[in-house]
């Protein structure tokens, strides 16, 4: 489902006037990353089908929903059912026309019947009616399970989109808080502010309409599946009633009603075979997509058709985002530690006054652990430092009570105002440190790979299995009702001949009795 939600490509015309498909990226793709080490054809074996648009040669391009030859090859799997629908509609229609002509031209009905043919047609009628009922039950159960599978998959997609939106929103709030509240404006360099602005632009670029578009598309898809489910329920119920009443009318020999149902069934069976073909195509596309997602997850370094459809960027852009977030985190912690070492832990002269001197006193404040070195490599905390997780709790003990002029009148190393500003920076650092890997994962598609792995492991089996049930149910109902129509006509004719033969024999017997009486 992610594939169709994320699909975004348009056509442009090159200088020679030929149509060329190009990808619309939300962020730039590095030229160096465009040239991959190797190319992987997704679901190559599964999608190896005959392509009617290529002289019925085998299609070898793998899963690629932007390739017309893929759709042509997968559409060929529905061809047998569509051909059956065409032949059925034409041949059975001609047969009905021929029967009508014979009934109109024949003046007298013949008498006599074959008991073997009568019993045989009755057994076939019972068999095909039972098969139609079983097919309707399978169709009803299959469509319910398929609907549940699609709903669960769409719910998972929406939940993932909500997770992305919420995390990006939290990260954006952290960055906004960093610009709203300052520790000491003299320490906030312009490069630092520019770094925050650049990182926010990256976040907004990734998060642009992500949640709203996913929800809208999921609702649209769910609406379509709800309509399809209702159509399947109506079709199953109507075909069940058609098979039942056709069986009853045929047993009773009501030829008029039988022929009426035959005409209705003639059209419905053709439509059912067409619908079965469409379901066969859908089943194969779902199965191809699941296999393609699994192979894409298993080969993260290969270039595939999915890379042209998903809004992922190259590793260079992802690393730039991570580098920028590390830089901002490092600068934030450095600013806070500068305030602690140069202001809070310094017993300045009263003549200096705020903000350098505010009568700070008491035990020295511990420094904040910077998770990165100056070269932005990972750094381990040393003894006496507080980490980003518990800094807000530890530093509460170093606040003092202040007078209206902002001077501490109780032991403490920071005023409530400074504490609030420092906490804002700590929260931003904490958010960047914890969310930057997620942001990189979203941009380099590792987040998407995890989502695809989840869909493949927990949703694909149900989607493939239950779509197969619907496809088999439709085919079984179509075939059973098609054969039942023929049996209706034959058995209704045999039963009417039986009744006329009995009436004729009774008339002969009565005439013979009268002759004996007269004698």
Molecular structure report:
It is built from 13 helices and four strands. The protein has about 525 residues and is mostly helical. A two-stranded antiparallel sheet has the order 1-2. α6 runs antiparallel to α9, α7 packs antiparallel against α8 and α7 runs parallel beside α13. The chain is elongated. The N terminus is likely disordered.
Question: What key phrases describe this protein's structure?
Answer:
two-stranded antiparallel sheet; about 525 residues; 13 helices; elongated; mainly alpha
Give the helix/strand layout.
Layout: H1 2-6, E1 9-13, E2 19-23, H2 31-34, E3 50-51, E4 57-58, H3 68-75, H4 79-105, H5 115-180, H6 190-207, H7 210-252, H8 255-298, H9 315-344, H10 391-394, H11 416-443, H12 446-458, H13 460-518
Antiparallel strand pairs: 1-2, 3-4
């Amino acid at each position: 489902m992610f594939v169709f939600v994320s699909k975004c490509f348009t056509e442009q015309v090159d200088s020679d006037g030929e149509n060329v498909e190009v990808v619309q990226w939300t962020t730039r793709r590095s030229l160096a990353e465009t040239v991959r080490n190797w190319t992987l054809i997704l679901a190559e074996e599964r999608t190896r089908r005959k392509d009617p648009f290529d002289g019925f040669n085998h299609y070898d391009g793998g899963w690629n929903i932007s390739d017309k030859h893929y759709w042509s090859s997968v559409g060929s799997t529905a061809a047998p059912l569509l051909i059956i629908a065409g032949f059925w509609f034409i041949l059975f229609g001609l047969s009905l026309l021929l029967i009508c002509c014979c009934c109109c031209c024949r003046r007298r009905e013949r008498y006599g019947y074959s008991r073997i043919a009568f019993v045989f047609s009755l057994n076939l009628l019972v068999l095909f009616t039972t098969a139609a009922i079983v097919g309707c039950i399978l169709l009803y159960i299959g469509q319910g399970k398929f609907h549940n599978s699609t709903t669960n998959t769409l719910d998972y997609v929406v939940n993932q989109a909500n997770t992305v939106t919420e995390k990006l929103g939290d990260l954006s709030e952290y960055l906004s808080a960093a610009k709203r509240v300052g520790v000491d404006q003299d320490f906030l360099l312009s490069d630092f502010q520019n770094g925050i602005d650049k990182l926010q632009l990256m976040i907004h670029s990734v998060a642009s309409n992500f949640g709203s578009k996913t929800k809208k598309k999921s609702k649209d898809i769910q609406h379509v599946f709800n309509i399809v489910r209702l159509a399947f329920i109506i079709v199953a119920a109507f075909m069940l009633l058609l098979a039942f009443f056709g069986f009853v009318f045929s047993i009773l020999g009501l030829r008029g009603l039988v022929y009426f149902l035959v005409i209705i069934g003639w059209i419905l069976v053709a439509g059912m075979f067409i619908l079965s073909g469409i379901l066969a195509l859908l089943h194969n596309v779902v199965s191809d997509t699941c296999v393609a997602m699994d192979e894409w997850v298993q080969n993260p370094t290969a270039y595939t058709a999915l890379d042209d459809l998903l809004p992922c960027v190259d590793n260079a852009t992802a690393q730039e985002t991570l580098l920028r977030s590390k830089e901002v985190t490092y600068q934030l912690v450095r600013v806070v530690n500068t305030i602690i070492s140069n202001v809070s832990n310094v017993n300045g002269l009263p003549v200096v006054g705020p903000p350098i001197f505010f009568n700070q006193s008491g035990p020295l404040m511990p420094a904040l652990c910077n998770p990165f070195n100056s070269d932005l490599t990972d750094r381990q905390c040393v003894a006496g430092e507080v980490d980003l997780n518990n800094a807000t709790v530890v530093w509460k003990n170093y606040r003092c009570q202040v007078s209206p002029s902002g001077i501490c009148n109780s032991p403490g190393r920071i005023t409530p105002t400074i504490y609030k500003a420092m906490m804002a920076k700590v929260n931003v650092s904490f958010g960047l440190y914890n969310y930057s890997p997620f942001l990189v994962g979203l941009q380099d598609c590792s987040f998407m790979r995890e989502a695809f792995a989840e869909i493949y492991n927990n949703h694909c089996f149900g989607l493939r299995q239950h779509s197969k049930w619907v496809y088999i149910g439709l085919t079984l109902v179509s075939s059973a009702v098609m054969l039942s129509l023929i049996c209706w006509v034959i058995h209704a004719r045999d039963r009417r001949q039986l009744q006329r033969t009995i009436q004729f024999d009774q008339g002969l017997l009565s005439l013979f009795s009268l002759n004996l009486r007269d004698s």
